Amino acid sequence: MLSRESSKLIQLVTQHQDQLKQDPVFARRLMRKNIVPLVDAKGLAKGVLGKYGRQANQQQIMAFQQILTEVLIRTYAKAFTLYRNEKIEFHPARLNKKSNRAKVKAELYLSNGAPPVKLIYKLVLIDKRWLIRDLTVEGISLVGSYRSQFASQIQRYGVAETIDRFDRQLQKLKSNDGSA
């Protein structure tokens, strides 16, 4: 699944490279259409909230999920504008026989000849589809990284206020770039 979707995404990025660089709204739309369906956004949001997720109600978790999804879209849309014919090599999935989880190791080979970047995709099986729950890059977990960023804010302001603050920041970004 990852190899197939990765190839499809690389083809799209290569095909639209100039437009991706010139039009951030187009880049985010491409990510929203092609990346978001592959991600367990709810599980990702709960993982980032960590222990603070127990303090959040369902509406707050959904709001946080939407904010986090938009942050990821914006982050990866920018990253894809930097694409320079890098290659990715996936290893066979390691399934956890006791649960609905798997890990897939991969290497990202950069076009500048630097050593490959080690990746680990953590997947979860939901409704007969494997979805990405976390991505670890060179030992740094996406979920863990975001969790530590949000934890300090939640400790300071609480769950509801932190979600509101990030939502206001995101709305400001959207109004500034015309994507509101």
TrEMBL record:
Q: Superkingdom, according to UniProt?
A: Bacteria
Instruction: Extract the Gene3D superfamilies matched here.
Output: Tgt2/MlaC
Pfam families per UniProt: MlaC
Q: Which InterPro entries match?
A: MlaC/ttg2D, Tgt2/MlaC_sf
| Name this polypeptide is given | Toluene tolerance protein
